[in-house]
Amino acid sequence: MKFIFADSMDMVDPDYDFLNDRSKPSRKVYWDDRYPHEMFSTAPYDGVLVSRATVEGLYTDSQAMRFRRIGAREFLRLDHSKFSALDIFGDCGAFSYVKEDVPPYTPENMLEFYHDGKFSHGCSVDHIIFEFDPTVKGMEGGSEEARMRFDITLENADVFLNASSALGTGFTPLGVIQGWSPDSMAEAARRLVSMGYTYLAVGGMVPLKAAQIRMCLESIRAAIPGSTRLHILGFAKADEISSFTPYNITSFDTTSPLIRAFKDNKQNYYTRVGEVSLRYFTAIRVPQAIENQRLLRLIKRGVFRSEDLVKMEKNALIHLRAYDEGYADLEETLEAVMLYSSPLMLEKPYEEVKHTQKITTLKAQYVETLTEKPWKKCLCAICQESSIEVMIFRASNRNRRRGMHNLQVYKGVIDTLNQQGSLNG
């Protein structure tokens, strides 16, 4: 089972100055920045997925042109020999055109995109179906819209497979499954295999619960040969991957370990417990007072003075760093952090809200993080170099480093699951 990381230009400045919160004036974005695989001795994933929607929507015009000129592997700086085994997956980025009647791409111009980018794997042109009803049987159910998208996805897959032979044996086409129920997805899978696909990608899984995804996989597996490879697109339940191993998944892509570093309310930093379990810690929020939008609104409304917030921010950082080095105790460090957290969380001074549920819950989470000091126990390159900075929730250079750490921890879990599968097999 391969863990494919869905990239969205998730890079950090390796020379970022944490004490002064700035990059060098000479820094060149992209050229001086580093991808996750450049921050560790080995890549924290088995491959990278790049969506066309990302290239055309997130990249600058010059970056997009360069991507198509030199190919994904060189653009992502995966052209070193130690990364030669990593796969380069591509898809359309169907979420970007979910409101359109038909996809903006044809099978032919998607193959042109894959050819230019020198992808090793590419998904057919799909149209997302968000309806889901696990109770209907066979091809029952499904709105007119869902059925139209079902047909469009399969028609595109048929054309895509026939035309993909022009890219040669170095390219593997994946037929995308869309459906409104486990049985309709199984029927889509059966038709894709009949077309000649040996590798299928299961789409539309993002909004589904883990139990619903398992229902879909069970139906799909029952409808296709055991030798047919399966990929799960946008696997949002990545932390529960061990429960999906019975379905013989070949690969899946996700951004979850990195994204949760700065989009989850409390599960921001991963550690391993045992062989395949994860434990989570809450990162300590110390945003920049003069840049955080919520704090700026408080300043404009006259609730707090900017100089007071800046002072609280600086005091929190000083105490956290002193605590990390053994010069401050837990109680005084926690006090400094909570004084700044209260305006951020509840827009009021700490003394007025310290007994509220939200603040007491946050304080307990911070106590756990500061008491355990997980960053001190981690031997990864990021934690060794950044120390407590990796645990501070504050702008992209810290937050993405924490996400990269999570990728490395998560990759270890996947490797262990694969080893257990080999032993059991």
Question: How is this fold's topology laid out?
Answer:
Layout: E1 2-6, E2 47-51, H1 52-57, H2 61-70, H3 72-75, E3 87-91, H4 107-117, E4 121-123, H5 144-164, E5 172-177, H6 182-195, E6 199-202, H7 210-223, E7 229-232, E8 251-254, H8 256-263, E9 269-273, E10 277-281, E11 284-285, H9 293-300, H10 306-324, H11 330-346, H12 350-353, H13 357-372, H14 374-377, H15 381-386, E12 392-393, H16 395-424
Parallel strand pairs: 1-2, 1-8, 2-3, 3-4, 4-5, 5-6, 6-7, 7-8, 11-12
Antiparallel strand pairs: 9-10
Detailed description of the structure:
The chain has 425 residues and is of the alpha/beta class. It folds into two domains: 2-254, Queuine tRNA-ribosyltransferase-like (TIM Barrel); 281-401, no CATH class. The chain has 16 helices and twelve strands. It has an eight-stranded parallel beta barrel with strand order 1-2-3-4-5-6-7-8. The protein has a two-stranded antiparallel ribbon with strand order 9-10. A two-stranded parallel ribbon has the order 11-12. Helix 5 links the parallel strand 4 (121-123) and strand 5. Helix 6 packs parallel to helix 7 (210-223), helix 8 (256-263) packs antiparallel against helix 16 (395-424) and helix 11 runs antiparallel to helix 13 (357-372). It is globular. 40% of the residues are buried.
